[in-house]
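Problem 12. The chain below contains 171 residues. Write out its predicted structure in token notation.
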Amino acid sequence: MDTKMARIFQFRSRPRRRFIGLFRRRNAGFAVGLLIIGAIALYQQTSTSGAPSGAATPVSASEITSIYDGDTFRMGAERVRILGVDAPELGTRAKCAAEREAAIKARDYLRRKLRGGAVVTIERNGNDVYERTLARVFVDGHDIADDMISIGLAIPYSPSTHGKWCDIVRK
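Solution.
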């Protein structure tokens, strides 16, 4: 009788772990994938400088390394595109001489404002298709986009007016 019971109930000193090990291996890829997705989501929530999107960040004039045109400048490796405005294009992107002249005026104005010792604050708002940081830029508390529009150095950004500076400048 004891042998029959031994055959029915096989007692082991410790339980098998084969199933648990297999379960863990199956989820390892899932866990790694989830970790990668989380890292990508976290990266997209922050800009290249690490400041959260939408947070106002004070910037010193020494951080602004170059000013390309009236709506784009560089802070170290980060390219910043001023949100909500379209300034005339410089260089080969200008479609006429009048646009090129207007672009130089817009760039020089932006350079004076950003490097003139004023308090500059940027509010990041994601990236554009060229991986530039889109940001609202404030100089002494004033939105630089509004200032440039009010004095005629830029227009409000609109896909319908983008690239039509020659028509605008001639009017």
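Discussion. The beta strands are 56-59, 66-69, 72-75, 78-82, 85-86, 120-127, 133-139, 142-143, 155-156. Students who got a different answer should revisit the alignment rule from Section 12.3.
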